[in-house]
Amino acid sequence: MKNLGFGLGLRPDHYEAILADRPPIGFFEALTENYLVPGGKPLHYLERIRAQYPLVLHGVSLSIGSTQPLNREYLKALKALMLRVEPHWISDHLCWTGTDGVNLHDLMPLPYTEEALQHLVPRIQEVQDRVGGRILLENVSSYVSFKDSTLTEWEFLAELSARADCLLLLDVNNVYVNSVNHHFDPEEFLRGIPRHRVAQIHLAGHERQKSFIIDTHDAPVAEPVWNLYRRAVERFGAVSTMIERDANIPPLDELLEELDVARRLTAAPAVA
Amino acid sequence: MDLQDLQRAFQARVLLRQEGIEVELNRGDDFEPRLDTYVEGYRTRLVEALSATYPVLQKTLGGETFAQQMRDYVDTTRSLHYSVREYGADLAQWLESRNDSGRTRELAELSRWEWTLADVFDARDDQALELSALATVPPARWPGLSFTLRACVRRFETQGNIVQWWRAANGLCDQPAELIDGEPSQWLLWRRGVKTFFRSLDADEASLLDAARGGSTFGELCARLAADVPDTEVAVRAASLLRGWIAEELIADYVLSAESE
Known about the structure:
The complex is a heterodimer. Chain A contains 9 helices and 10 strands. Chain A is an alpha/beta fold. Chain A has one domain: TIM Barrel (Alpha-Beta Barrel), CATH 3.20.20.150. Chain A is globular, with a radius of gyration of 18 Å. The two termini of chain A are 16 Å apart. Chain B is of the alpha+beta class. Chain B has a domain at 126-261: Outer Surface Protein A, domain 3 (Alpha-Beta Complex). Chain B is 49% helix and 14% strand. Chain B contains 10 helices and 5 strands, in the order ααααααββαββαααβ. In chain B, a hairpin with a 2-residue loop joins β3 and β4 (195-201). In chain B, α3 (55-61) packs across α4 and α8 (203-213) packs antiparallel against α9 (218-226). The mean pLDDT of chain B is 93. The chains are: A alpha/beta, B alpha+beta. At the A-B interface, α2, α3 and α4 of A face α1 and α2 of B.
């Protein structure tokens, strides 16, 4: 996948500032479900921003790991949105979001087992067939782990991406969060991920609880995550990188300054 | 447990706080708080989604009461759609069914109003009909004209002062003393570009607009008007209303009925 440089999550709070100031941002990542609507303001702004910036779509409801059938209605709507805004790629999360027709609107964890691999691979392949290309799946933060897991998270991701021939969206914050929550070396995680599978990197803030960390996306990127990002850049090279902020959203300038930290930590490619 | 049973057990823990998933999970420090991240996070997320759709209801009830009531709603109402934006469609009926407040009906109406606004906000985009498009229709064929309203057009009827209440909450007028029942009033909501509009309708216009939406021809609209307006004024009044609807971008298209072809 093409390196789009340094991007931000597209949030309604910033629509006007983006169009008025045209800040030097390599790409925007739009939350897919926010734009799976018939029309109106969300699509109006998305199309205008797409006309000026590279765009990728990031979903939360594919529920690729769910044991219920893939949601055909969702895939149809996703495909229609892709045709409308022509994203460079689409991504979602390696998780399940509900079963038996219910949507928990959360990124629920999967056990790292052969059974899960066998369940996921044909589903990923079906989605890739339907959307006409490889998708990116993101490693998620988790707060519990399963007794039945026989693989580490990174082994699972490596095996899954090889078998399904999909790409990975490496969320460096989630790697760090899980390394604290599940007591592993985050650099071992990075070393376990095949270089050629990582097509995008996420950075975000988190919230520390007593013995664990919650992935909140409501604060600046934490120092240990920047340190780990430096290691990720060393391993994966120049990969499209973006900062996610979903709550306590600051003015655009503040996020641009934070994005400059990422730029400084790696060779800065040209912006669009 | 196989993967399906595992997911069902985890989901039951989140939705119903039902035990079962615990035996499948590694126990470590802060096991319960970690599990609660999923259980409580589910409720928090859906209440947040409801507060985004129903901001004036939240303001009216007060943050704490709203949060408590919405958590009750979340405990009884599953989200079945891939988009959280669709959650809360039946909140008005749920509020009515609770019947636990002297203002139940008013609060239900207020939530119905806010849901309608949300519905208009992201309704399908379509082109508004230009007045000049009708210039090509010969006057003799006007009685056979019928109209398609734009996808964003919604009608709303209220028994109370909820629209004034909503406007006051948004700083658009003085705050009424209380949310009360009153005379029934008819409202029209729609969108021009990305901006949402609404205005009140008098009974005549409401009836005619509803008839037009139902497929009545211009001739049939005139016949309806004739019941309330002198014959000599019917055509002028009907044409005036139609011009207004077109200017306000309420009409998407017209068709000529087969009889008038």
